[in-house]
Specification:
Elements: H1 2-26, H2 44-47, H3 60-93, H4 100-112, H5 127-136, H6 142-153, H7 159-164, E1 171-172, E2 178-179, E3 191-193, H8 198-211, H9 216-228, H10 234-238, H11 250-262
Antiparallel strand pairs: 1-3, 2-3
Length: about 280
């Protein structure tokens, strides 16, 4: 009887852990990323644009350029969306009263970006909540996105990129939510998440960087670049906040920084993260 009880307790604990991890990484799935801001809709043709077969491109420089060209519109859309959200936040922060629609949007953002604040429909939204939202709702330098996508997907040729639209190695924890890595250690339950489109993969990456506690230092660095208006140099420096992205830690960070330098990716950062501390 005791052994049977122990088995059930173990199953319950495993289920709770799986639920927690799923919530930690993917609690945003039910909330539309573009709710509440007016931006030009992403081209429907882009949403369904298939990943090119980069493996057949033999010229290395051509392969790299086509990879960056493919990613750039997705990245631009996410950064435009974040800029619009940020402007709405700053406008609301300057007001003393909000419409019911504005208040609900703020409560949605607090939930979506995992702000630790107990708010109800009647709560006073304090300055520190706005400050935390502005820290998290911000653009990501294209150079950083491109370098990580290239690194994690083998320049768009990996199994996970081709079969799951996953360029960034994002995980999920529900059985069948993605692809099981061949090298997954025995006893582990994670899968490499499957996205319906490449747009979903890029959006998921942006939200991961902007909401996960693991990347707080990256967001703090980004805020500092905002203060001095040096966004065009931010990608390489913000990579310092990616220690938790890979088990390789600092080695991974240096690799991403080298990819940004070698491929001159900072040119894509012009116009992103200007002098706007919020």
């Amino acid at each position: 009887m005791k052994s049977q009880r122990a088995v059930w307790i173990g199953i319950l604990i495993s289920a709770l852990i799986a639920w927690y991890l799923t919530t930690l990484y993917h609690s945003d799935i039910s909330i539309k990323e573009d709710d509440g801001v007016e931006v030009e809709a992403i081209d429907p043709a882009l949403l369904s644009k298939p990943l090119p077969d980069f493996a057949v491109i033999t010229d290395v420089n051509e392969k790299k350029q086509r990879f960056f060209d493919y990613l750039e519109p997705f990245i631009d859309h996410e950064n435009t969306l974040l800029a619009a959200k940020r402007e709405r936040l700053k406008t609301l922060n300057a007001q003393s009263n909000y419409s019911a629609q504005d208040r609900q949007w703020l409560l949605d953002m607090v939930q979506r970006y995992r702000i630790h604040a107990q708010l109800s429909e009647d709560s006073v939204i304090e300055d520190k909540v706005f400050a935390e939202l502005l820290l998290k709702i911000d653009q990501i330098p294209p150079s950083l996105v491109m370098a990580q996508a290239a690194n994690e997907s083998g320049w768009g040729t990996s199994r996970f990129a081709r079969e799951a639209n996953n360029l960034f190695g994002q995980w999920c924890f529900k059985i069948g939510c993605g692809l099981v890595p061949a090298s997954r250690p025995e006893g582990e339950t994670y899968e490499v998440r499957r996205f319906d489109s490449m747009s979903g993969s890029v959006s998921g990456y942006f939200h991961n960087i902007n909401s996960q506690p693991s990347y707080h230092s990256l967001r703090a660095l980004r805020r500092n670049f905002r203060l001095v208006g040096r966004g065009h140099e931010a990608g390489e420096w913000l990579a310092e906040g990616l220690l938790a992205y890979s088990s390789r830690g600092e080695e991974y960070v240096r690799e991403i920084q080298a990819m940004i330098r070698v491929n001159k990716l900072s040119q894509y950062d012009i116009g992103v993260l200007g002098n706007d501390p919020g």
